[in-house]
């Protein structure tokens, strides 16, 4: 004899609820909760923006490096400096703010990857200014500040992304175990059902 929970309608309702629950779990797993690190990242973004107004090398500011204005060519600003400033602007500022506003895990990943690349480019930019032809200015306070800020942003995005990745892996493992248990119970119920039926049916 079958109970109300075994009717096709109730099973369909359960499957619908299970699908909704799994969809909600996936949605939550795809989001980040910056918490206190969100404030640190926001402050870092504003410091990074302020560094664009400070001298990058000599009298050439960060904005001048981006757009090759105000004597950037005369100061022999090289490709590593321009590349670093563009990466810092796009990923350190743009994607960091986008990740904080949307709280999407994928956007935070992009911010992390771009900031990590920008950190390496910043090292090359500082080195290129230290080895510039004699008579040209070395690295300015704006370049040093921008480089340190991008490193700090990379560190905090790495902590946020890694903590969310660990939670995602744990949730995925739990979903796999639950699915395997449900399938095993369903198989056992199917095997036992013919024995439970009275003779003659």
TrEMBL record:
Ordered alphabetically, the record's keywords are: Membrane, Transmembrane, Transmembrane helix
User: Locations of Basic and acidic residues compositional bias?
Assistant: 187-201
> TM spans, by residue?
36-54, 83-101, 108-128, 140-158
Instruction: Give the residue ranges for region: Disordered.
Output: 176-201
The molecule here is called Transmembrane protein
Native source organism of the sequence: Mycolicibacter sinensis (strain JDM601) (Mycobacterium sinense)
Q: What is the lineage of its organism?
A: Bacteria, Bacillati, Actinomycetota, Actinomycetes, Mycobacteriales
């Amino acid at each position: 004899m079958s109970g109300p929970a075994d009717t096709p309608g109730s099973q369909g309702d359960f499957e619908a609820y299970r699908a909704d629950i799994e969809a909600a779990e996936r949605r939550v797993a795809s989001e980040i909760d910056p918490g206190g690190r969100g404030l640190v990242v926001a402050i870092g973004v504003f410091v990074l923006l302020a560094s664009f107004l400070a001298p990058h090398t000599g009298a050439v500011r960060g904005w001048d490096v981006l757009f090759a204005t105000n004597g950037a060519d005369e100061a022999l600003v090289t490709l590593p400096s321009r590349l670093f400033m563009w990466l810092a602007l796009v990923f350190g500022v743009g994607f960091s703010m986008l990740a904080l506003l949307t709280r999407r895990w994928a956007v935070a990943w992009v911010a992390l990857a771009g900031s990590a690349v920008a950190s390496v480019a910043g090292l090359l930019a500082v080195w290129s200014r230290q080895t510039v032809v004699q008579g040209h200015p070395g690295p300015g306070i704006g370049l040093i500040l921008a480089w340190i800020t991008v490193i700090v942003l990379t560190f905090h995005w790495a902590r946020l992304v890694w903590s969310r990745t660990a939670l995602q892996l744990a949730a995925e493992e739990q979903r796999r175990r639950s699915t395997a248990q449900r399938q095993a119970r369903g198989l056992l119920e199917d095997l036992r059902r013919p024995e439970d039926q009275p003779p003659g049916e």
